Amino acid sequence: MSTSRSQLKEDVERAYAVQTRSGIEGALHGAAIGVGLAIITHYTWPFFRRQTFQFKGFLVCTCTVFGLIINAERALQEYESMRRLEENAVRKEARRDLARQGIIPTETAITKWRKNRSGEGKDYH
């Protein structure tokens, strides 16, 4: 049980690292877009030029936070999708192997199959 908990903890840490890295990249892209748009709009639109510096900063911060959130969420969903595909492939292999041995592939049998596959156990029953 501790092995699965440690694997789960490692998986959570990897997901956190992926989300953090992607969030930072998204924030930087969003900030660059926000600053660029603020500069262009400042020089091309008189109404925007009359706005306060704080309001312009607020708009840039909004772009930054939007980029952070969208990128972090997208990266986490891609990571979860990849992990789900990997898990489904392992479970499919376990079901096939257990069926060949004449064992009904229940959750318990699949767990024992995984332990046997990693060299921790020998018995399915």
Order of helices and strands: HHHH
- Helix/strand-derived category reads mainly alpha
Silhouette: rod-shaped
* Proportion of residues in β-strands: under 5%
Computed over alpha carbons, the radius of gyration is 25 Å
- Number-wise, the strands total 0
Question: Helicity level, as a percent range?
Answer: over 70%
Low-confidence parts = none
Assembly form of the protein: single chain
- Number of helix segments? 4
Distance between the termini: 17 Å
Average the pLDDT over all residues and give the rounded result.
Answer: 91
Largest sheet: none
List the helices and strands and how they pair.
Blueprint: H1 2-44, H2 46-49, H3 53-100, H4 107-117
Helix pairs in contact: 1-3, 3-4
Quick overview:
Helix content is 85%, strand content 0%.
Fold and architecture overview:
This protein has four helices and no strands. Helix 3 packs across helix 4. The two termini are 17 Å apart. The model has no long low-confidence stretch (mean pLDDT 91). InterPro entries: Rcf3. Keywords: Coiled coil, Membrane, Transmembrane, Transmembrane helix.
Protein traits:
mainly alpha; rod-shaped; transmembrane; 125 residues; Rcf3; transmembrane helix; coiled coil; membrane
